[in-house]
Each structure stands twice: as C-alpha cells, then as structure tokens.
Design goal:
about 230 residues, about 35% strand, Laminin, mainly beta, two-stranded antiparallel ribbon, 20 strands
Amino acid sequence: DIDECQSQGGLEGHHCHSNTRCVNTPGGYECECLPGHRRLDRFNCVEIDECSTGTHQCDPHATCRNTQGSYHCLCQDGYTGDGYKCSPICSQTCLNGGECVRPGECQCRKGYVGNSCESDLDECTAGLHNCQPSAVCVNMPGWYYCRCKPGYRSTNLPDNTLSTTCTDLDECSNGSHSFHPSALCVNVEGGFQCTCSHKPLSDNPGPDDECKLSCMLEGNEIENGMMVTPH
C-alpha cells in the first residue's frame, strides 16, 4: 500500500487542501476536515461559523465571536463570567434572600420590597393579605399571619399557611360566658348576649322567676354596666 499522505500532489501524493488532514486508507486516502470545519468536496473543507449558524454554546447574555476553526464567547456589559455562563452584576447587595436577576436589579423574595430588598412589605396595610373579616392581620418581617378576633376560634386547614379560618365560638355551649345563672345566654356571631325573655311575666314573681342581667366574675356578682378589672 502506498501512503499518499507522505507526499502531496502527483500520482502518488495526496491532494488534500487547507483545513483538512490526510488520512491513509488501504489502497487510497481520505481528506478529513479539521475541527470547526465542514466538508465542501472530497478534497476541501470550509470553516463553520458557529456564531451565524447558532451552533455555539454562548450564554444568552454573551456575544459570540467567530475565530478560525472555533469561536469565542464574551459576556455583555453588565454581566460577568466566562462567556459560556454569564451572571448579572448588581452594584447594590440584594438583601433578605433577594437575587440579582438583571444588571442593577434585585428580584426580592416574597414579603420584601426596595431597590436592595431592604424593606419589609406590610401586607396588612397594603391589603395583600388573605385574612377573613373574622380575623386580624398581623404583619411580621417578611410575612404575616391572621389572628382570630375575640369570639372566634381558629380552625387552620393543612394547606392554609398564611390564612386562618376562624369560626364563631359558642360561648353559651362551652360555658365561657359570664352571665348570671338566672339569665339566658344567646350566642351571636362573634359574641353572645344575655336575655331574660325566657322568664314568664307574673304579677307575683317567685324566687324561681327572678332573672338578673348582672355578670359573675371570680365568684362575685357584678351589676350590669359596672366596669371592673379582674385580679
């Protein structure tokens, strides 16, 4: 076998042109394209422009520059990296878990606002909470929670992380009211009322007919309308 790759031209030499490499084969030879080139014909290869064909691996925020047999990636202004991976540059520090997503721009974590995510977002005053009318919104740094109003109790659902479901507390049934035993407790939404309407009217009321609208506090009877402070 004659190794045509040892010489160029003539009957016993190869005819591979530039951008190729001669590879000897049994009874002949082949012109193999160099890296970054594609075949034009049997003896010629032309350079592949990865930038114009879109076959490069540059970051979306990088500029592709074609070179002989290859290409080069350069991060655009406002980004840093090797060109294959470019990250935005923020002159300010993104605080409270914020992330620099574009040059000079922080994307804040939920619950924070500001150029550097430095300020707490008050969801309560901004009306961005999910609290029910039966609950009070309580703002916290980076979040909030819902607290049931007096007369309601919390029945949180498993997937209800920032919103409390508050249902009416029946003080009459659970005995948490403070009315005199002779009065009738009537439960209402968010509270309770005291009434004597269950006692029949009589010209000569007996001890069993007596009804008082006073309250019982720590074993003592407090007249209706009086203001006291528990011990």
